[in-house]
Each structure stands twice: as structure tokens, then as C-alpha cells.
Amino acid sequence: MEGCVFCMIVGGEIPSRKVYEDDRVYAFDDITPQAPIHVLIVPKEHHSDLADDVSVELMGRIFSSVPEIARIKGLDDAGYRVVVNNGEDAGQTVGHLHVHVLGGRRMSHGMVEFAGE
After folding, report:
1. What is the SS3 string spanning 29-76?
2. Relative to the CA of 47, which of 10, 25, 37, 63 has its CA 20 to 30 Å away?
3. Catalytic amino acids?
4. Per residue in 83-105, pLDDT tens?
């Protein structure tokens, strides 16, 4: 998709720090990390979000890469959080499906925070 920052990263037009890659997904370090380790996993084909006709096979590929990425980043023993923000109200800031893998510190118990509360 023209103008999509994640498509440009996957295509090599924008540099990134690659963590993992296979024929369907690309994972890289987030440039604005929300934890000491923050990796984004994106499908190589453009899908704006979870409702954008994403195949079960592709979702499986995305999520099956998570344990390998956690191992690469040294999170597999201590644990990590996996997050998908879907849509504006959920905090999705890039209109390309992506999964966050966060770790490197103990996470708080609560999973959500609501704006304005």
C-alpha cells in the first residue's frame, strides 16, 4: 500500500533493526519502545487491521513467530506481553496490522488504561 510506513519498512525503503523474517512476516525493533524490549511483527502483505480479510494461515504465521522472537530477544524464560491494537480507540497508530512483543521488565498487572480516566 502506497504511503504505508510498515510497507516501506518491509520493502527496505525505510531502515529498521530486523529481529526476525520469514516469507510472510517481518519483525523489527520499535523506534519508540514502550518497554526495554519492544518488537513489532508485521505481515509482509498489507492488511489495515484484524478485520481486513486476514487469513487464518497468515494469523497463524504471525503468532507462531512470537516464541522465536522472544527467544532471539532473550525473553523466553522471564516472560513477555503480546498486544494487538485494533483501530483508533485501541491506540492503533499505523494502519497496517501489527503485533507488539514487549518485555525486559516486570509488567504491571493491569492490561488496559483508558484515556481521560
Report:
1. ECCCCCCCEEEEEEECCCCCCCCCCCCHHHHHHHHHCHHHHHHHCCCC
2. 37
3. 98
4. 999 999 898 899 999 999 999 99
